[in-house]
Amino acid sequence: MPEGDTIFRTARTLGRALAGARVSGFATSMAEPAAAEDERSFVGQLVVNVESRGKWLLMVFAPEADSEEAEQRVLATHMLMSGSWHVYPVGATWQKPREQARIVVETEGFVAAAFRVPIAKIYTWEKLRRERKIPRRSEDLLHAEFDAEAALVRLMVRRTESIGEAMVQQRVMAGVGNVFKSEVCFAEGVSPFVRVDSLSEQQLRSLIARARQQLKANVMEDSGNQIVTYRGLRRRTTRSADPGANLLVYGRRDEPCRRCGTAIARALQGDGARVTYWCPQCQPVPPDAAL
After folding, report:
1. Which of 20, 221, 262, 265 is packed most tightly, with the most Cβ within 10 A?
2. What pTM was computed for the model?
3. What is the H or E stretch that residue 209 is in?
C-alpha cells in the first residue's frame, strides 16, 4: 500500500497540473463521484487545490477561487494496494488504456486519471471534519500543521499495544505504513514488538520526530521531477551512495544488518498481520511478545 510520502508526491504533482484550472471534462465509473456529477456537474468547476492526508488524496472543486467553503466539494480517494493516479499533458500518450480509468478529470492543459482506485468519496468540508477515517491536517506527519505533542498523547493512550501496531494507526500519526514503521524503529534502536508503555516519553518523542524526518526526506524535490505518477517511488532511509542500499531493514529478510551483520528477520504483526522487519540483535524482541 502506498505510504504518506507517495500520496504527498502524487498530490503535489496533481496540484501543479490542475490547481487553478477549470474542469473541461469529468468521467467516472464509481458510484459516489457519479452521483455527485449528476447532482451538480464538475465541468466548469475550478480545481482549487490537491492535498494529501496520510494515505488519502483530496481534490477540491469550487465554482470560483474565492468560493465559500460551503460551496466547495472534496473528492477523496484511497489507493489501497493497487490504485494510482496518472497525469498527462493533453494529447500525450497514456500508459494505460483510457477505458480502464475509473476517474478522469480534464482541464485545458492536463488530464488526470485514476486507475484501479478502489475508494472514492465526495465530501463537503463539514462532512469531512466529522469523518473519522480521514486524518486531520494536524495528524499528518507531512503537513505544516502537524502537532507532535498531540501525536505523543495519542501514542501514549495506546499503551498496551506494540509500538509497531500503534505507529501505523493513521489517526495516531498519518503517513506511516509498514516500510516506515520498520525503518523508524530500527533507526531508533527500538523493537517494533515492545509495548508502548515500556518506552519512555523521550523515546516516543524521538520515534515521532524520526518518522517525520524520514517521510519529509522522501518528498524532497529532485532535478528530474516530471508530471507523472509517483506509484513505485524508490525510498531511501540510509545515507549510503550505493543505489542498492536504500533501506535499512525493510524487504531485507535474511540479509545482514547494516549495523551488526545479523540476519534481518521478518514477521506478520498484530491482528492485521502487517509485515514487519527488524534486526534481532539491534532490536531484541521482548520475551512476552507474540510472533
Report:
1. 265
2. 0.88
3. helix 201-217
